[in-house]
Amino acid sequence: MPVKGSSNNSGSVEDKARRDLRCACKNARASLTADAVMEESACICRYITASAPYRSADRIFCYYPLEGAGEADVLPAAKQALLEGKQIAFPRVTGDHMEFIRVDELQDSFREGSFHVMEPVGSEVLTPSAQALILVPGVAFDSAGGRMGYGGGYYDRYLSAYPETLCMGVALHIQMVTDVMAQPWDIPMQYLATAQGVVHTAVKNDICNDKR
Question: What pTM value is reported for the model?
């Protein structure tokens, strides 16, 4: 793995390594069968809804899985949150801006939006409360809480505006890597949810201290 600052072209070498890792992880994820993704996602959702960050949250910020891309499906967790009386919201993108829209039921509440992702059709914008939990998708994660996104920076920009809100990365087993080669602007995850459980990461900052 290239070392930052080890040579004049270290930046370009590292950029290429990140591009290669993103491509490899996306291809590996896309190779999973729909049944395999569904089975692993169901397990992940059970761990999410049993976790302390979820139980203490009043608002759950979810995401709609990319169809056919092998992305972990958190809709079962969103459905459970609604049954428990929690508020839920899903992202909607306009230009470079992402916001979360409240959803009161999962049927007929979405339409295809930016990047062919299903987006909510409602109009009520929700912002993270002090007790909110944001479920964060990604291409790859590492055990230190590092996250590699899709390259657009939408989540990093959004999460940077709410530094005290708990973030839980959601990953299939094939998305866990040794090192995502995080950049200074990449927002780390305080928790990771996988089919092995929900774990607190090694993130060392104020928002990592779960006082609830």
Answer: 0.86
